[in-house]
Amino acid sequence: MVYVPLLHSGLWAPVFSVIVALYYLYGLLGGAAFAGFGLLSLLGPVMMFMSKKMKVVSRAVMERRDKRGRLTAEAVGAIRLVKVYCWEDTVSANIKAARDWELKKLVLKQYMSGIATFFGYIGPVLATGVAFGVYSYGTLCSPRARAGMCIPHLVPTV
């Protein structure tokens, strides 16, 4: 019950802040503000796609990590049989294969995380660049440019 107000403000506050920022940018830059907003709108699905793929990879890594843990626990539990029948190489190869697969997926997850972080940081910069590139309503003076660069960075990214 405590989380209901947080959930409620989490739904309308970001939308409201985007609308207010877009209103102020439209006042400063005119229609060029919508070019930057359009670019940010296009980056949204890219971020959503990356997030879903990272979730799938994380789930697969956790399942394989559990499998490797079971293999290790089984090997430690039956260490006498492993030593008596000289199965050390086979058991260690199974554990190593599970670990190698896990490491490959962890590296993939880190690359995807890096790409998502890159798009998250470069998005507002690109949006500002596109908005200023499209701006054609007179001279772009320093105060207008500074205000136009600050407003998109005030919008919280969820």
What's this, in brief?
88% of the residues lie in helices and 0% in strands.
| CATH fold title | ABC transporter transmembrane region fold
Structural class: mainly alpha
Output the CATH homologous superfamily. Answer: ABC transporter type 1, transmembrane domain
The main β sheet shows up as:
none
Order of helices and strands: HHHHH
Alpha-carbon distance between the two ends: 22 Å
Give the percentage of residues in beta strands: under 5%
Poorly predicted tracts of residues: none
Radius of gyration: 26 Å
Count of individual beta strands:
0
Using the alpha-carbon principal axes, give the shape: rod-shaped
Helical segment count: 5
Helical amount among residues, as a percent range? over 70%
